[in-house]
Design brief:
Blueprint lengths: L3 E6 L2 E6 L1 H11 L4 H15 L7 H15 L13 E5 L4 H16 L5 E5 L2 H5 L8 E4 L2 E5 L5 H15 L1
Parallel strand pairs: 3-4
Antiparallel strand pairs: 1-2, 3-5, 5-6
Helix pairs in contact: 1-2, 2-3
Amino acid sequence: MAEIIQIKVGKSKIGIIGLKEIFEKAKSIGNMTDEELKTWLIEEVRKENYVPDSTIDEYTRAVFREYKKFIGEKVEEEKFEGLEIKVLGPGCFSCDRLEKEIIKLLQENNIEADLEHVRDPQEIATYGIVGTPGLVINGVIKASGRIPKRKEILKWIEDAMKSAE
């Protein structure tokens, strides 16, 4: 059975069936312009996934962005309105502890955020961090290879919220 991979489409995380296989096939085909590749990718995605016509442009951008990451190219993430926090790590004790600390901080301070624990080694590698756990707030790497102190995390979150205003 094909793997389901979540990608960000607009403000939502959407599970896409067979995305890795589609990307591998696209990589082996090669020799397409960006526009041809975008069209081919979204057509392949639509074979196994429901993509509403009203959001096809957003899906196309998102799938193309994820493909670029898959082949190792640096891509600029779509701008996210609000607070976006990512814990990078395979799910070890330290990574899980960092995620729980952040959840507690957000709850205690009544802060709304999109929190994601990225466990996929390939996706973690795209951030270029040396060690896990890693902490990324609004696209900026704040920590790598250590669990920051609560006060430090809270300050980073507050600073990110101020700069987003």
